[in-house]
Amino acid sequence: MVFVNMFVTFFEGQKVFGFTIEEAILASNANIGGPTTAAAMAVSKGWYRFVAPTMLVGTLGIYIRNLYRNISRKLTHIKKDKHQLRKKLRRCLSYLLDKRLPIVVWER
Description:
Elements: H1 2-16, H2 21-33, H3 35-45, H4 51-99
């Protein structure tokens, strides 16, 4: 996964968006390590003008990741709930059919 991130950031980012090598390195670091490691790398290399953008890009990445994770968890719970509901409904219907109890269907 790291290799794919670096490939897309370095090669496609430079060709499509015109990133410099410093911007590509810091974007890759912000994506993999988060905003704090990218800002620390920018300061240690003396690229002070990139500290604020790396913090913003890294924070945006964390926000997008959490948003995606929450949506996927909600969808997973909905699928599980539907599955459990179907199971309970089948059990209830099979119980009623086994007991030969009259099933009342309400019509509107």
